[in-house]
């Protein structure tokens, strides 16, 4: 069986790699086009995230002037007065997304504002607002407070400054920014690329051979149908994986240019070797499921065109599932959702890119995907054994 399976794999590889046009359009062109298009789209993309209406921000304030108390009460937040000793600890909490905002007024703020005269020069009283731009709640609180303070400052005719120092008041790290952007965009893009690669090769290999009549030659050879099914799935998965990796490489190289590069705080170097290896494992297991599913559907089709029509619902399903990270919350995920093929892959990719995955989730996803691919390969074997399916007219 092993020899027969390897023969099928070599046959599929030879058919694919001898066709230079297919190699270019399937493996090289997706990544090249994505890199060129994304690189020239500009650096102005911005994302705005809505917050829950009932969310209460965890906020801290130091040296709060009495006249600002009504302003703070209007913001949906749980305010805590702190002294100077705890400020660094609170900044760390904001950086770790355990708190939302810290506002530091200078001591004797009201007196300093009254005494400040811009015409005489000198340093204006500075209100410091620390926040985390990768947390929607923190950004919303920052924008509200900055807007209110700006309006108050305008009424006083430039009597104080907001975040005028040279230090960074945004507690989000490059890791936070990169994780947020990549976790939202890349699962959808990767699933799209992988599915496109699978569709480019699987229907032609199954329905195409039925249409040309060459499948009959394979079926009458003295090989096990299971070897034929596994050989088809493994070889097609490898080719589809090359297409997906090409697209992934193009995306990773072009996203910094698309999102503004270092100015946006995005840096792909925050991911380590382990992250990429886990991502590759998830991609490979997902491609096996996709190829096996498309192969099963294609086995029922009489032509490539009919196969393309039949797998259209699968494409819609995968596209919808790939969008779920954009709408999912940041709470802890139940291990049960990782028992659902395709959906588990999307959630794992989101977890890897956002640094929130758990090893059990990755292991469960890979196990489920491999079992699912094995079951689909078994179904494909049964279809190869069915003359009614293989020789339908």
Topology:
Elements: H1 2-17, H2 20-39, E1 57-62, H3 69-73, E2 77-81, H4 87-95, E3 101-104, H5 109-115, E4 126-131, H6 136-156, E5 161-162, H7 174-212, H8 214-219, H9 225-259, H10 273-300, H11 304-310, H12 312-322, H13 343-353, H14 359-384, H15 387-390
Parallel strand pairs: 1-2, 1-3, 4-5
Antiparallel strand pairs: 3-4
Helix pairs in contact: 1-9, 2-9, 7-9, 7-10, 7-11, 7-12, 7-13, 9-10, 9-14, 10-11, 10-13, 10-14
Question: What's a quick, concise take on this entry?
Answer:
By secondary structure, the protein is mainly α. It folds into two domains: 2-44 and 174-390, no CATH class; 57-162, 3-Layer(aba) Sandwich (D-Maltodextrin-Binding Protein, domain 2), CATH 3.40.190. The chain contains 15 helices and five strands.
Describe the model.
The protein has a five-stranded mixed sheet with strand order 2-1-3-4-5, with helices on both faces. It folds into two domains: 2-44 and 174-390, no CATH class; 57-162, D-Maltodextrin-Binding Protein, domain 2 (3-Layer(aba) Sandwich). The protein has helices at residues 2-17, 20-39, 69-73, 87-95, 109-115, 136-156, 174-212, 214-219, 225-259, 273-300, 304-310, 312-322, 343-353, 359-384, 387-390; strands at residues 57-62, 77-81, 101-104, 126-131, 161-162. Helix content is 62%, strand content 6%. The chain is mainly α. Helix 7 packs antiparallel against helix 9. Helix 3 (69-73) links the parallel strand 1 (57-62) and strand 2. The protein has 15 helices and five strands. The protein is elongated.
């Amino acid at each position: 069986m092993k020899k027969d399976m390897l023969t099928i794999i070599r046959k599929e590889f030879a058919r694919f790699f001898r066709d230079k046009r297919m190699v270019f359009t399937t493996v090289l062109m997706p990544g090249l086009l994505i890199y060129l298009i994304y690189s020239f789209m500009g650096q102005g993309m911005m994302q705005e995230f809505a917050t829950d209406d009932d969310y209460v921000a965890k906020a801290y304030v130091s040296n709060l002037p009495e006249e600002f108390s009504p302003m703070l009460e209007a913001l949906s937040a749980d305010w805590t007065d702190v002294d100077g000793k705890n400020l660094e600890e609170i900044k760390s909490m904001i950086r770790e997304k355990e708190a939302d905002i810290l506002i530091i007024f200078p001591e004797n703020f009201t007196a300093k504002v009254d005494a400040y005269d811009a015409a005489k020069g000198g340093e204006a009283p500075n209100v410091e607002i620390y926040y985390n731009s990768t947390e929607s709640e923190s950004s919303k609180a920052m924008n509200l407070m900055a807007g209110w303070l700006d309006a108050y400052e305008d009424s006083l005719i430039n009597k104080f400054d907001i975040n005028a120092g040279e230090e960074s008041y945004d507690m989000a790290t490059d890791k936070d920014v990169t994780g947020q952007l990549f976790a939202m965009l890349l699962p959808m893009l990767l699933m799209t690329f992988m599915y496109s690669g699978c569709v480019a090769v699987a229907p032609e290999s199954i329905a195409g051979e039925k249409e040309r009549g060459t499948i009959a030659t394979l079926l009458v050879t003295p090989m096990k149908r299971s070897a034929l099914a596994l050989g088809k799935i493994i070889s097609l998965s490898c080719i589809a994986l090359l297409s997906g990796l090409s697209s992934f490489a193009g995306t990773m190289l072009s996203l910094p240019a698309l999102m503004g590069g270092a100015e946006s705080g995005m840096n792909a170097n925050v991911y380590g070797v382990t992250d990429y290896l886990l991502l590759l494992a998830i991609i490979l297991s997902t491609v096996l499921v996709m190829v096996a599913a498309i192969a099963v559907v294609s086995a029922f089709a009489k032509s490539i065109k009919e196969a393309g029509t039949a797998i259209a619902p699968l494409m819609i399903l995968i596209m919808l599932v790939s969008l779920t990270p954009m709408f999912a919350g940041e709470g802890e995920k139940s291990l049960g959702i990782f028992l659902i093929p395709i959906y588990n892959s999307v959630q794992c990719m989101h977890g890897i890119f956002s640094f929130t995955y758990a090893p059990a989730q990755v292991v469960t996803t890979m196990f489920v995907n491999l079992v699912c691919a094995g079951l689909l390969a078994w179904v494909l074997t049964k279809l190869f054994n069915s003359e009614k399916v293989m020789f339908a007219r």
